[in-house]
Design goal:
Elements (H helix, E strand, L loop, with lengths): L5 E6 L3 H14 L10 E6 L6 H7 L5 H13 L4 E4 L8 H4 L6 E2 L2 H12 L3 E5 L2 H5 L2 H6 L5 E3 L3 H13 L11 H16 L4 E4 L4 H4 L9 E3 H14 L10
Parallel strand pairs: 1-2, 1-3, 3-4, 5-6, 5-7, 7-8
Family: Belongs to the aspartate/glutamate racemases family.
GO molecular function: amino-acid racemase activity
Keywords: Isomerase
Length: 243
C-alpha cells in the first residue's frame, strides 16, 4: 500500500514534539517498504515565538513565523498539514487561509473522539495559553462535557514547570523530577473525577503513557496522526477539515 499524498509537519513548538509527531506517522503507517511511506515535509521552525506568552502576556505573535512555515509547505505541494502544537490552534482562523493544504485540527478531532466514546468528565492538561484561551472548553461544553482542570497554582508549578522548567519537556535533557510533576498533575485530575485524561499539549506524551494511568488517556497528537494515516492511505482524496 503506497500513499501518494504529501504531508507536512510544522514543528519547533517544541522541537521534540515535531519529531514525535513524525515518529507517530511512521509507527502507524501500513507501509512494507521505503516507497510505502508517506512523503513528509518537516519544518522544525524553532523561531516561532512562544504561543502561551503571546496569548497570556501579549508578547510577540507566532503568526508571522507560522505563515512563513506554511508558505514553505505550499511551495512543497503539501496536501495535508499537521501542526505539532495545540496552543497554536488558538490562531487557527488567522493562519488557515494561508494554507493550500488541508490543516488537521486536533481540537475538532478531540471533540469527535469524546462524543463518539461517550465520556462526560474530561480531564484536560494543556499550556496556560491553551487553558486561558478556553480552546477545549469552547469546543466541548456545547456537547455537555464537564471540563476538569488544574487550579492556577498546580497549572504553573506542576504542569508549566514540567514543560518549561529546567530539564523540562522542552529541553534536550529531561529530569525524573519533570516526569514526576507531570504524573502528579495527572493524578490530581483523576482524583477530581476525570473519566479520561487528554494530553492537550504536544509535549505531554514525552512523560506520560497509557501504561502510567489507570483510566483512558488520549494524546491529541495521536488523533492527528491517526487521521492523517486514514486520509493518506484509505481515502482517494483528502477531505476538507479547514472548518
Amino acid at each position: 500500500m503506497i500513499s501518494k499524498k504529501r504531508v507536512g509537519i510544522i514543528g519547533g513548538m517544541g522541537t521534540q514534539a515535531g519529531a514525535n509527531l513524525f515518529q507517530k506517522l511512521i509507527d502507524l503507517s501500513p507501509a512494507n517498504n521505503d516507497q510505502g511511506f508517506m512523503e513528509v515535509f518537516l519544518h522544525s521552525n524553532s523561531q516561532i515565538p512562544d504561543r502561551t506568552r503571546a496569548i497570556v502576556y501579549g508578547e510577540e505573535s507566532p503568526l508571522k513565523e507560522m505563515i512563513r512555515s506554511i508558505d514553505l509547505m505550499n511551495k512543497s505541494g503539501v496536501e495535508l498539514l499537521l501542526l505539532a502544537c495545540n496552543t497554536i490552534y488558538h490562531y487557527y482562523d488567522e493562519f488557515v487561509t494561508y494554507a493550500d493544504a488541508i490543516v488537521l485540527n486536533p481540537i475538532h478531532l478531540l471533540r469527535e473522539y469524546v462524543v463518539e466514546k461517550g465520556f462526560k468528565k474530561i480531564g484536560i492538561l494543556g499550556t496556560t495559553g491553551t487553558m486561558a484561551a478556553n480552546m477545549f472548553d469552547n469546543e466541548l461544553r456545547q456537547y455537555d462535557k464537564e471540563i476538569i482542570k488544574l487550579d492556577s497554582w498546580e497549572q504553573e508549578n506542576l504542569f508549566m514547570e514540567s514543560v518549561y522548567g529546567k530539564n523540562g519537556l522542552k529541553s534536550s535533557t529531561i529530569s525524573q523530577e519533570t516526569i514526576d510533576k507531570m504524573h502528579n498533575a495527572v493524578r490530581l485530575l483523576i482524583d477530581r473525577g476525570a473519566e479520561i485524561i487528554v494530553g492537550g499539549c504536544s509535549e505531554i506524551s514525552i512523560a506520560v503513557q497509557q501504561s502510567d494511568i489507570p483510566i483512558p488517556y488520549i494524546d491529541t497528537m495521536d488523533l492527528m496522526a491517526q487521521k492523517a494515516i486514514e486520509e493518506c492511505y484509505y481515502k482517494e482524496k483528502v477531505l476538507n477539515y479547514n472548518q
